Amino acid sequence: MGKHSPTAGWTVPAAEALRVTSTGPIADFDPSSTPGFDGDKSTGAEFLAERGEVLADLQELLYANGRAGDHRSVLLVLQGMDTAGKGGIVRHVGGLVDPQGLSIKGFGPPTPEEQQHDFLWRIHQALPAGGRIGIFDRSHYEDVLPVRVHNLVPKSQWEKRYELINKFERDLVAAGTTIIKCCLVVSKAEQKERLSERLERPDKHWKYNPGDIDERGFWDDYLEAYQAIFDRCDSANAPWFLIPSDRKWFARLAVCELLIAALEGLGLDWPKADFDVEVEKERVAALDD
Ligand code: AMP
Ligand code: MG
Description:
Elements: E1 9-10, H1 14-17, H2 20-23, E2 37-38, H3 41-67, E3 73-80, H4 86-92, E4 102-106, H5 112-115, H6 121-125, E5 133-137, H7 146-149, H8 155-174, E6 177-185, H9 188-200, H10 211-216, H11 219-233, E7 240-244, H12 248-265, H13 277-285
Parallel strand pairs: 3-5, 3-6, 4-5, 6-7
Antiparallel strand pairs: 1-2
Helix pairs in contact: 3-12
The structure holds adenosine monophosphate (AMP) and magnesium ion.
Magnesium ion (MG) is lined by residues 82, 209.
InterPro entries: P-loop_NTPase, PPK2-rel_1, PPK2-related
Pfam families: PPK2
Keywords: Kinase, Transferase
């Protein structure tokens, strides 16, 4: 155990406190809040270290079951405005577990090949195999975010996508994938800060995209597009969570906690050996030193 005060910690489970049905509309959400968690940055860091070990153990259990033929998997969908910290979650939460058990995929503008298929085609191809935790850095929801905000396809087309997404996710869940959808919420002020830092530091120039400034000009349209997603594509089986992300330590802790809850929900046990343990013990004991 860490040194944090015994009263610090989650007063409400993350999966309850952060669910879009509890948080209220994204437009009124405070990106520097820590819903459900009582503690500061240093207690948060201690919690993350402790909970990271729990996550790593659960991930190993999932992986072991996958190796034994279990088709179940977990899919973490990350969305959020530019600079919200999606990459940081991949590094710092994904980094808590064995990389062999992860399948990470980022989605940019569709390639010419992808454009020749329906919008879910590339998503199908990137789904995690049994035993894996898949992380999507952006996802099929881009097809109702920038696509909606800029009418990259006619409204009559993107309108239909909410239902297509719901059906796709229902099928996915039925086939054994646990889906957790997290929208990292950053404030405009914090985004400005992070953009400016990207320019100040040559080691961050690679992350700077001049187009991000243009997208910022559509902030309210994005909030509306996000709200439409939460209103239309949140369900008990494929829930959406709002992750306040002005404080990176909290965003990481929160996503770690949601992953733990998802994995615990699978109720996994170590797979039974497909060999006779007693016979193998005798054989090993009989080996030369
Ligand atoms: P980044 O996450 O910084 O690598 O940027 C990826 C870019 O690809 C973002 O500007 C996304 O909005 C954009 N993008 C991802 N998927 C789509 C899509 N289906 N349609 C249009 N733009 C997309
Ligand atoms: Mg970017």
